[in-house]
Write a structure and sequence with these properties.
Distance between the termini: 26 Å
CATH architecture of the largest domain: 3-Layer(aba) Sandwich
Number of helices: 14
Helix content: 25-40%
Strand content: 25-35%
Shape: elongated
Largest sheet: 8 strands, mixed
CATH superfamily of the largest domain: CoaB-like
Bound molecules: cytidine-5'-monophosphate
CATH topology of the largest domain: Rossmann fold
Radius of gyration: 23 Å
């Protein structure tokens, strides 16, 4: 498959043990049709030599910002303009921090600031460094700046630890890089996406809700927007930035979400229900804060409307996609919902694995339809959003 034909990829190599895999990455990107140039940070050169990457890429490797000879041959601004994608692999914790704060103290960081191309990072570090609050904050900052995050994977590490922080394998990175360019096939299609939790009021200060972060729905909205769709995002309370040019409607309860969704149906081609809608709400909402007077108390609940089922039974029915978050027998429960709710596709998510699902940044899912299924391996929700939009687009076009 030559999905990167005519694409110019600037590979940034930073200092980490996975730097040796940059050699393999260059080969895999070339196999997919890309032309590759390389920038190395000073720390990267302690792990692998510029000569190796020069020989593999077939182009001089760029290392210094203040090298007048190199600048004369191809300056940092030209490099920034040359790239269709800047792929930083491995991306160390230090480089993520510098990228998040917009530093321009070496060639790679400067090119990242100067470029209009998409930037993707493949984080690679010790699991403790990856889990550290500072790294996680930097990650959120980078995601909010539209930096794509490929991986990291989970498993045994060079330092002997086991956990998240392994750089994604070169072939998988090349596939992820290809997907950055594949998108763009939903021009003029109107998509409505629900996201986040709902809150079901008990009294003026209390509610019933769940742990949904909304990250998957927001990533889908971003990917659909990038693919040319016009996107309406109907979301419960979440602390996420709205993707640019997406129309956002904020709701609290399932009933409000239901109403907002039904109102959009006259202008909806594709509906994606990624919200974790509360199945029940209190039968009545107390006017005043309920006082603690008894040892036990009972709240009577009543079923909420099934929003997605109402969408798929609506006379103005759009192409309808649901999610199934399951902890066991994931596929069979998901197929049951596909049938019962009369969906076109269902995206099944194993939430018993805490590395993926509800509140995490990564996810792995299966897309299931009547007579088929495709599994999408673990990656960032942001990148998975792009894969899902591609998959959804293919099925929508066939219909
Ligand atoms: O039945 P279950 O809640 O597992 O189904 C999940 C799918 O149904 C998701 O797509 C979710 O957004 C949707 N749903 C809904 N309204 C509800 C409950 C779930 O739209 N009341």
């Amino acid at each position: 498959m030559q999905q990167l034909t005519n694409k110019q990829i600037l590979v940034g190599v930073t200092g980490g043990i996975a730097a040796y895999k940059a050699a393999e990455l260059i080969r895999r990107l070339q196999d997919h049709g890309a032309t590759v140039r390389v920038i190395m940070t000073k720390a990267a050169q302690a792990f692998i030599t510029p000569l190796t990457l020069q020989a593999l890429s077939g182009n001089p490797v760029h290392c210094d910002l203040l090298d007048s000879e190199a600048e004369a041959a191809m300056g940092h601004i030209e490099l920034a303009r040359w790239a269709d994608l800047v792929l930083i692999a491995p991306a160390s914790a230090d480089f993520m921090a510098r990228l998040a704060t917009g530093q321009a103290d070496d060639l790679l960081a400067t090119v990242c600031l100067a470029t209009n191309a998409s930037i993707a990072i493949a984080p690679s570090m010790n699991q403790g460094m990856w889990r550290d609050q500072s790294t996680q904050q930097n990650l959120q900052t980078l995601i909010s700046k539209q930096v794509l995050v490929f991986g990291p994977g989970d498993g045994s590490q060079a330092c002997g630890d086991i956990g998240p922080g392994r750089m994604m394998e070169p072939e998988q990175l090349a596939v992820e890089a290809s997907s950055v360019f594949k998108i763009g096939s939903l021009d003029g299609v109107k998509i409505v996406i629900t996201a986040g939790p709902t809150r079901e009021a008990i009294d003026p200060v209390r509610y019933i809700s769940n742990h949904s972060s909304g990250k998957m729905g927001f990533a889908l909205a971003q990917a659909a927007m990038d693919a040319g769709a016009s996107v309406t995002l109907i979301t419960g309370p979440v602390s996420l930035q709205t993707p640019e040019r997406v129309t956002r409607i904020d709701i609290n309860s399932a009933a409000e979400m239901h109403q907002a969704v039904i109102e959009t149906l006259p202008v909806c081609d594709i509906f994606i229900g990624s919200a974790a809608v509360a199945d029940y709400r209190p039968t009545s909402i107390a006017d005043q804060k309920i006082k603690k007077s008894t040892e036990t108390m009972t709240i009577e609940l009543v079923r909420n409307p099934d929003i997605i089922a109402d969408v798929s039974n609506h006379p103005q029915r759009p192409f309808t996609i649901g999610f199934a978050a399951e902890t066991q027998d994931v596929e069979s429960y998901a197929r049951g919902k596909l049938e019962k709710k009369k969906l076109d596709l269902i995206i099944a998510n194993d939430v018993s694995n805490t590395a993926i699902g509800f509140n995490s940044d990564n996810n792995a899912v299966s897309v299931i339809w009547n007579d088929g299924k495709v599994s999408l391996p673990m990656t960032s929700k942001q990148q998975l959003g792009r894969h899902l939009i591609e998959e959804i687009c293919q099925h929508y076009r066939k219909k």
